[in-house]
Design goal:
By secondary structure, the protein is mostly beta strands. Helix content is 8%, strand content 23%. It is built from 4 helices and 11 strands; from the N terminus they run H-H-E-E-E-E-E-E-E-E-H-H-E-E-E. It has helices at 31-34, 47-51, 195-198, 203-208, and strands spanning 82-90, 101-105, 131-135, 141-147, 152-154, 160-162, 165-171, 178-185, 210-213, 224-227, 230-231. The longest helix is centred in the C-terminal third of the chain and has 6 residues, at 203-208. The protein binds fe (ii) ion (FE2).
């Protein structure tokens, strides 16, 4: 992001919207069909959006942040490279954000989603559902167990593949505040061949979407650990797919 965007009088850092990929990115074919063709309008949030019900702590189940077990048919673990993914949700001034609902979804270890329209030949894992959720603790940390998702092909160009990735959703203080992004894995050469990643011109923004291997938090004989911090806005903000629509 540019240093040309100093802190505003309200203490907030204005967005640098040029940082975000354009809505129509030809290398990412479907964007040419769904990108707005008219100038965007800004609508004020309604009272029901601002005061509507939020997700409560009591609705989080014991296995909701354990993708290795949360869809298991018979208690058998999902197949794949075992991972712990964790990180801190921060505001623009690096203040931890407690009580934030973080949701995540991903393909299985073979790169296969459990979806009726999935066209990839990789096998379904009957013990892997591919989604979960967690609330951040008092220090803004979330954590979950999973298996490393495989890369997968998608019908974009003649033979385009997505790098291994996990989708993230972060809910804010109102139900209409939802941010969406994707997490990649440090050192993956597939990142630089992906047409979706290719829409992001700022390498620093891509680096912020890349989880870092954390050997220190790797439980022996169990799982690798990756850290993925999420910054909600400001000069160090994570790049969110829906940032231009978001609050
Ligand atoms: Fe995906």
């Amino acid at each position: 992001m540019s240093d040309l965007f100093p802190e505003g009088p309200d203490g907030l850092f204005p967005r640098d919207l040029s940082w975000h990929p354009p809505a129509a990115t030809p290398g990412y074919k479907s964007t040419t069909f769904r990108a707005p063709r008219l100038p965007l309008l800004s609508l004020d949030a309604t009272k029901s959006e601002l005061t509507g019900p939020r997700f409560g702590h009591s609705l989080i189940g014991a296995l909701d942040n354990d993708l290795i077990r949360n869809y298991s048919q018979d208690g058998t673990d999902a197949i794949g490279q075992r991972l712990i993914v964790y990180g801190q949700v921060l505001d623009e001034n690096a203040r931890p954000q407690p009580g934030v609902l973080v949701e995540f979804w991903q393909a299985n270890a073979g790169g296969r989603y459990r979806h009726r329209k999935e066209g990839y030949q990789a096998a379904i894992d009957p013990n892997f559902g591919g989604c979960g959720r967690a609330l951040t603790d008092e220090n803004g940390f979330y954590t979950f167990r999973t298996v490393k998702p495989g890369a997968y092909p998608w019908p974009n160009g003649p033979n385009d593949w997505r790098p291994a990735h996990i989708h993230f959703s972060i809910f804010g203080s109102a139900f209409a505040q939802r941010l969406i992004t994707q997490m990649y894995f440090e050192g993956d050469p597939m990142i630089w061949q992906c047409p979706i990643v290719g829409g992001i011109k700022d390498k620093a923004a891509i680096d912020q979407l890349t989880a870092k291997l954390d050997r220190h938090n790797t439980p022996p004989m169990d799982a690798l650990a990756y850290r993925f911090d999420i910054v909600l806005r400001g000069r160090r903000a994570t790049l969110f797919e829906n940032r231009k629509e978001g609050l």
